[in-house]
Amino acid sequence: MCDSVDEVTQAVLAKNDSLAAGLREELARRGVSVVNLLSSPGSGKTELLGRVLARAVERGLPVAALTADLATENDAHRLARSGAPVKQLLTDGLCHLEARQLRGHVESWLPEGTSLLFVENVGNLVCPASYDLGESLRIVLMAVTEGEDKPLKYPTAFGSAHLVVLTKVDLAGPAGFDQAAFAANVQRVNPGVELLFSCARTDDGVDTLLERVLAVRDGAPVHRPPLAPRPHTHSHSHEGTEAGLVS
User: Which pTM does this prediction carry?
Assistant: First the structure.
């Protein structure tokens, strides 16, 4: 019975991988980079994403965002304050996004000329980690209130990240957060991955995060995580950056 369940799971993931690979190629032809944001609920990723989108809009960058939740359109309303095009995707109980869902929204909704699409995945560090969405960049976020050992508890998520962002760093002191221990744990599951520090309340890290994302959009190589679902390599026609995320 276990073998049968495992076989079904592998078949589902294989189908998703195939769809994701095709979507990645299609998006590359259209000059669109997808940024897949993963975190637990309460990490502050919606607030941080809203700040990044607002900064991109201020700079006249062609960005859009797709946010996923089991229910409500609250996050879409929050993100729309940035001025960027935003779409809510309701999963009706599904704990993660899949490539087929993203493809449907890319085909039916993505504004013409968009070169950067942020996807805020369902708040969950388990299921979403196994599903490739055809993204150019996978970012895993974690708040200082979640504990230094979280990368060790969720190695698939952190081990598949091209970039890790620590959020709510203004609370590190009150939370007794050991930043050095956290950084060491991240490196244990994903050697060489870059770690960024952010605080949406003060805008710390917002510009740095946006620059990292733009660098990948413009063709910079990305870090190769040990547990990436599939290689994420492509190039776009954008020019003007020499920054990279490769290690």
Answer: 0.89
